[in-house]
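batch_manifest entry 22 of 60
target: Fumarylpyruvate hydrolase
source organism: Bradyrhizobium ivorense
requested by: lab member K.T.
priority: normal
notes from requester: please return tokens only, no post-processing; we will run our own comparison against the previous entry in this batch. if the run fails, retry once and flag.
--- input ---
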Amino acid sequence: MNAASTVIPLPPQPSLPVVGETGVYPVRRIWCVGRNYLEHIREMGNDERAPPFFFAKHADMLVADGATIPYPPLTKDLHHEVELIVAMKSGGLNIPAEKALDHVYGYAVGIDLTRRDLQLASRKKERPWEIGKSFDYSAPCSAIQPASKIGHPTAGKIWLTVNGKETQKGDLTELIWNVPEIIWQLSQQVKLAAGDIIMTGTPAGVSQLQVGDKLECGVDGVGTLKVSIGEPE
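--- output ---
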């Protein structure tokens, strides 16, 4: 397909930079794991015995490192959730956990921005979470570190600061489901493919954001990410 064969202009291809590469990583889909750190489950008052589950964001909701993000509409309770991101280089259905890492291209650091008031209202009405999770600029993400250079991290601090004050802190060892298990479970639900990224869940310490806040976050051995919250559009 090219621009001459479409009745409207082709939308841009969402992508992420790759550390040490001139080429970019094209993003196909964004998948997110809910409730994958025990302390975050407890702070949100959820059943810690329930298994994590998956929801999606659209690829064009990605935000680059260093960006200023407009405060989103319809909410008065915007929260941050720092996460390890897994970037796939291949995929399939029903990928066994023991072969899952063969399909991973690399890793990054992301923030699952959440309109918490809208998410909780939807949950009470037993409605989908999209209004609280899937909105413009809701998926800030760092450059990808290829697994060929850093391996597959299983331990290391994951953290986030707001205006220099640490609000979230955890360790990858605290993931309830590890990366191979996440890929195995998600690939039973959908056919994964190259270009899919997976946000693997957030540790405790989520908090409300205001216009003017400056966020910095990171995962040891993977990278860091900085964004700011700006005025509404």
